[in-house]
Amino acid sequence: MAGKPKLHYFNGRGRMECIRWLLAAAGVEFEEKFIEQPEDLDKLKSDGSLMFQQVPLVEIDGMKLVQTRAILNYVATKYNLYGKDMKERALIDMYSEGVADLGDMIMLLPLCPPDEKDAKIAQIKETTTNRYLPAFEKVLKSHGQDYLVGNKLSKADIHLVELLYYVEELDPSLLANFPLLKGLKTRVSNLPAVKKFLQPGSQRKPPMDEKNLEEAKRIFRIK
Amino acid sequence: MAAKPKLWYFCGRGRMESIRWLLAAAGVEFEEEFLETREQYEKLQKDGRLLFGQVPLVEIDGMELTQTRAILSYLATKYNLHGKDLKETVRINMYAEGTLDLMMMVAVAAFKPPEEKEESLALVVKKAKTQHFPVFEKILKDHGEDFLVGNKFSWADIQLLEAILMVEELDASVLSDFPLLKEFKTRISNIPTIKKFLQPGSQRKPPPDSHYVEIVRNVLQL
């Protein structure tokens, strides 16, 4: 019998959070082994578990998967969150990549030098409201359906809604002029599996604070 | 009859080169429109053809696809270069993501100030020698087959050859400790479609120079 997927990462969002969201939304129970010391990461490297010496690592179906996108695409395919054909998948990929681009900017913000931070935040807010949110609002408007692709929940919707929560954390007013995105956020948040994941006590991780940042820097040996 | 795919990008490698490699290796003829002016770029944006206002853009099968990985994944599947089942596909994706990361470091280095650029490129060579190439050498050694996944030519093989050649441009001796990768390089380079692409006069682009960097900065207003 297949065990639950096992996620190896530090106890924070980083590059693993979108994988946690996707598994949770698919209703898949998963285990987590937290990397707490640099030595834990060294051990994973030396025992050959990490193909490119990097985490995330997800043990699933007898495989040790690395590379965030490879993992996400595997999970999405396995749990039917990847569209019905190649063309739908291409759209889902395009939208997911856009989400990842903005998501990465927000994720890397804590690593920004303090004197550059305000400018960086302003830049992120500008690109959010001028480039990314309008693009997704337009997609929803163009077909008037409940989900981004093929009138069916896909990984694109899950990734986007996760991102909208981070945008809201940055500045709630950023979502003001995007009614369809607000609707998508509500709709997806009310799906039973997502609703459960959004509750306190789930495996969803909180925003990075000073302590969490120090821990990440220590584990990944970032100066 | 299907029209040829049309690629919109600068006349250089950047984020489009892996797409050119994949199409060429699959034996697919494609057209290119080169971005040379700010006006061309703004027109593409204004016409609503760039979902996030960015290139690469590939017009194919009635779609206007942007986002490099979305394009690569579509092409790999369309031309049967993406494995026979989900387990093969995920391995191909893992390998391709690794090599793409390495090649993106090279693409981005071209835009850094001279000192930082040297450092970045040295880091690429180091990563290739210590992280990426040993892994692929081991994969080839463990199964003893001609191709990385499923004993069949795939997107992962194309990406790896592209990455090998790119790193060799930075350090010609980079494969000296990897005999199986040397054989791999020769073997994949001799596949007729790839052999053709490697010849002068093909649509393969040269390494980025200062002229290319200037055009990109101009068009994107960086």
UniProtKB/TrEMBL annotation, chain A:
Q: Which Pfam families does the entry link to?
A: GST_C, GST_N
List its EC numbers. 2.5.1.18
Q: Quick one: a GO cellular component term? A: cytosol
| UniProt-listed GO biological process terms | glutathione metabolic process; xenobiotic metabolic process
Q: Which UniProt keywords apply?
A: Transferase
Enzyme's top EC category: transferase
Ranges for domain GST N-terminal come to: 3-83
Which domain of life, per UniProt? Eukaryota
Would I find Aminoacyl-tRNA synthetase among this entry's keywords?
Answer: no
Question: Catalyzes what?
Answer: RX + glutathione = an S-substituted glutathione + a halide anion + H(+)
What GO annotations for molecular function exist for this entry? glutathione transferase activity
Cross-referenced Gene3D superfamilies:
1.20.1050.10, Glutaredoxin (3.40.30.10)
Please report which protein family the annotation says this sequence is part of. Answer: Belongs to the GST superfamily. Alpha family.
Instruction: Give the PANTHER family listed for this entry.
Output: GLUTATHIONE S-TRANSFERASE, GLUTATHIONE S-TRANSFERASE A1
Q: By what name is this protein known? A: Glutathione S-transferase
Species: Muntiacus reevesi (Reeves' muntjac)
Automatic annotation (TrEMBL), chain B:
Q: Which residues form the GST N-terminal domain?
A: 3-83
What keywords were assigned to this record? Transferase
Which biological process annotations from GO are given for this protein?
glutathione metabolic process; xenobiotic metabolic process
Q: Name one GO molecular function term.
A: glutathione transferase activity
Which enzyme class? transferase
What domain of life does the UniProt record list for this protein's source? Eukaryota
The UniProt record lists the keyword Manganese:
no
E.C. number: 2.5.1.18
Please name the InterPro entries in this protein's record: Glutathione-S-Trfase_C-like, Glutathione-S-Trfase_C_sf, Glutathione_S-Trfase, Glutathione_S-Trfase_N, GST_alpha, GST_C, GST_superfamily, Thioredoxin-like_sf
Q: Which PROSITE patterns match?
A: GST_CTER, GST_NTER
Q: Note the Pfam families from the entry.
A: GST_C, GST_N
Q: Which reaction does it catalyse?
A: RX + glutathione = an S-substituted glutathione + a halide anion + H(+)
Any idea where the GST C-terminal domain is? 85-208
Family of this protein: Belongs to the GST superfamily. Alpha family.
How is this protein named in the record?
Glutathione S-transferase
